[in-house]
Amino acid sequence: DCLRAQGQRRARLSTLGDNNLPPSCGKEIEEGGVFLRAGKKAEIELPWHVGIYREDREDFTQICGGSLISSDAVLSAAHCFWDDNHEKAHNKSRFRVAVGKYYRDWNIKEEGMQERELKEIIIHDGYRGRARQFTNDVAILKLEKPVNLTPEIVPVCYDSQTHLVDGDIGKVSHWGVNEQNEWRKELISTQLPFVQFATCWNTIPQSFQQFLTRDKFCAGYTN
């Protein structure tokens, strides 16, 4: 039964989005790739970055990020959409996504960006939020309408056979907090090294160890 369930999940994933990703998938925009954003020049490195927004008092606030995996599907984290009180996903109408976006503020409309509503939120079958230490924290968002792929909007490649090893360096685009502990207004990219599970376990606070389940990996610096 377990193998059958896993096979069904893989089959469902294989039906999402385009059957064939474009040859340019997973390629960073070459250094110096500058685009016009709200009348100003902006540098975008990872063209698969997706901003995820939730409705908040008649406006939309950026709450999470995701990766474009096809023209009509986004890979993200389940906890961004999960309602712990009712143990199910929030209503899809509360969310919007934006691709090709440089400024975090939803109300800044930019040349080249595209906004989409959600057609479906697919949460991993085994996810139950805090009740299961956020195990299987994966969600796939089906878009109501496919995005148009452009030089600054390109899906990431995905390969289930790849295994990370010591020395691997990854890159993430984000609007994370700055040195003043304030949310950044403009998108940046940061390089982070892969950290072995045992090293990560021994480095993080003991109170957080319960959430470091075997389906996760660590990246970052220990200093």
TrEMBL record:
Protein origin, superkingdom: Eukaryota
One Gene Ontology term from the biological process aspect of the record: proteolysis
Every Peptidase S1 domain range: 30-223
Pfam families, sorted: Trypsin (PF00089)
Keywords carried by this UniProt record: Disulfide bond
MF-aspect GO terms: serine-type endopeptidase activity
InterPro entries per record: Peptidase_S1_PA (IPR009003), Peptidase_S1_PA_chymotrypsin (IPR043504), Peptidase_S1A (IPR001314), Ser/Thr_Proteases_Immune/Dev (IPR051487), Trypsin_dom (IPR001254), TRYPSIN_HIS (IPR018114)
Region forming the signal peptide: none
Keyword Disulfide bond attached: yes
Family statement: Belongs to the peptidase S1 family. CLIP subfamily.
Protein name: Peptidase S1 domain-containing protein
